[in-house]
Amino acid sequence: MSGIMMMLAGGAAPREPYTVEYLVLAGGASGGKSLNTANGGGGAGGHLEASETFTPDASYTVTIGAGGAAHPWAVQGQGNSGSNSILGTVSSGTATGGGGGGNGFSSTLSGLAGGSGGGSGGTAYGSSNPGGSGTSGQGNDGGLGFVSSAYVMGGGGGGAGAAGLNGGFYPSAPPYYVPQAGAGGGGKDWQSLGTTRAGGGGGAMAYYNAPFGGPPNSYSTQGAGGSGGGTAGAANWNGSASPANSGGGAGALSGPSSNVAGNGGSGVVILRYSGTQQGTGGTVTSAGGYTYHTFNSSGTYVA
Known about the structure:
single chain; 303 residues; mainly beta; 1 helix; disordered N terminus
C-alpha cells in the first residue's frame, strides 16, 4: 500500500530513507616520556567526515575511542596510541586512533603511525628520526626528531589539520641558535557540521647542554600543543591531558620519573540531518535547520 493510500486509510505514512552527514573523531595519543631526553608529542585521533543514506528504524552502533593513556610515574617509553572511533554498518565509519609519540631511547625513537602520527624522539645515540605516518584522509604525519651532537629535539605530534613541526635550531639572542622542540600540528574545523576546531597534535620536548657559544648548563624547551585539544610538552612537572572528546594529542614529558604525563583526548561522533528530529540516541540539539546527535560516549543511534 502506498504512503498516500495509507494516509487516506487512516494509517501513518512510512518514513523514507534520509541522508545523514557524520563526523567520526578517534582518540588522541599520549606523548613519549623519559628522563632528560627529547621526546615526541602524541598524534591526534583520525578525523573522518562523510555522508550516507540511513534506513528508518535501523540501529547503528557508535563506539567512542579512548585517548591514549599516559605513562605512570615510574614508566618511560613511547606514548600510547589512541583507540578507534566507529560508526557501525556505514561504508566509511572508522576513524583511526592517534599514534603515540617517540621517546629518547634508541629502540623506541620513532613516533607511531595512527590517524595522525606521533612525533619522533631525539637522542644522542642516532641521527634524525622520522615521525609516525598519518592515515590518508584522516590526519597528518608527526614531526621529525633531530640530533646534533649533544643537542636533541623531538618532533610535534601530527594534527587533523596540519603535520607536526620538526625539531630543529631556531634563532635566539644573536649570535646563539637554540634547539627547539617541534609544536603539535593544528586541528581541523568541522565546517560541514558547524562545530568547533578539534584534533590538535601534542607538543614535543628538546633537551641540550647549552646554546651555541652559551654557558655550559642544561636547558630544555617545550613545543606548543596544536590548536584544538593538543597540549604542550612538559619538563620537570606533570603533563597536561588533552580535553575529553577533542581527539587531541598530549604533549611529551621529559623529567623525573615521579612526574606523570597527560592522557590523549577521547573521541566523539556527531550526526546531523536536515529538518526535525527523526532518530534517537546521543545528545539531541537543533540549529540552522538541522538536527544534531552528539555521542560523547558509546551508544546506539536508531534511525
